[in-house]
Design brief:
alpha/beta, 9-stranded mixed β-sheet, two-stranded antiparallel sheet, 20 helices, elongated
Amino acid sequence: MMYSYELEQQFLAALINHPDSFLDISAMITEKDFYDEKSQVNKTIFSVLKNSIESGDQIDYVILSERIVSLGLSFEDNINIPDYIQALSLRKTKKGTLTEVAKEIKKLSAKRQIAAASLKVIERVKTASPEESFADLVEDADRMYNESMSIYDNGANVPEDLFLDMEDYVEERGNNPVEEYGLIGPHSRLHELYGSLLREGNITTITARSGVGKTQFCLDFCIKTSELNGGIPVLHLDNGEMSKEELMGRLCSSLSGVPLHLIETGKWRRAGADIINKVRSVWPKIKSYNLHYFNVGGMTVDQMINLVMRFYYAKVGRGNRMILNYDYIKTTSEKLGNKNEWQVVGEMVDKFKKLVQRDILFDGNPMIAMMTSVQSNRTGITNNRRQENIVDDESIVSLSDRIIQFSSHLFSLRQKAPDEMLDSPNFGTHKLICLKHRHLGSNYYRAVQPVRMEDDTLQKNCIFLSFENFTATEVGDLQDLVDSQESNADINLSNANNELPEI
């Protein structure tokens, strides 16, 4: 069914009898949502009624009838306007009916929009000139389709009374408690301190210098989080710096424990039965993984957004969760024009934030959790520098302050300085330092409380990671390090990561 006059009539009856409820549906329903191919009478009544309410007029069915008659319009079915509107006003309707019926009308309108978009796509393909690029054709089809798919979800965007639903929201949470709000990550201490780094509608950003391992960390984190949460689809967008083959080689090396050189050269087949068995043990494992790759090098951010939306609706499905990993934020394909690079990057971040927070919703809730990365500036360099000379704050973020503003979590990832490696050789190769957090984990006190060092100085807490063979393993935080030094014992950290295949 593409339209329903009965639903439209029920909606108009409720609005005539309860005009004070108009604000509840004002941003959801417009004149375009009424089916007018057969008759424009319902569309016209809504338009006049809407304008009257917005003008603050006190209106009844008699005044409404007179205003429509005064327009001098003729309708296809020669309907008697006063009788028709009076009949609508006499229908018994409840105040809450208006919103519920409006949602159903919006669904029908969305169906017609999708059907119309399909016809536009067909016509666009038929009339495409031989000189047009295939990429332009696909982009236009994506835009037509995605605009139609999002019409329903974006319809009810109105200011809301926060206290009106607070009791129901909190009580519902109490009736249905969960282990964690957001997706549970693979590193127990990191999760304990900072909570979920992959919450739907949020962006977590990792800033690091080139070659430090931000691609390795982000991809490893997203894949392991997917496995911990029932195989949620992961879409990895690569900015063109790493090919599909390079990523496959790294992932195979990580999963098997076989050096990358042997895999890339194909010499693993000649390296003995043990190596062969390790590589081939990977094949059963990856059948349960849900990782998708796309090289977005040369694409604009709008093209990337269209790609993500098409993938979500076609492969993930409306109402299902997804993890988006974008490696990494830069301006390679964006036209600068008269804008500075930081302005263009800011606009890119704005669009990604809108994508995960507003463009793809289900029952008003975001469905996509996003992780991305960005290059740090030269102050983040650790080579041949002592710890006290290294900058570990927001100033290391390159390109735009928007990255900081729109990130729910912002972390600096860096290699440990030479003196740090000497002081704590059993505590990994890298430090993950939280520069910004919009929420914290269950042990929030440990996350924000400075750690007292052996020399009685105070330092900001951080997470230690060990990077080996394209796998990131958590080895505790700074407080664990101090505790181990005091007890002259290594900390045996219980890590959820240990229950997963190495990725």
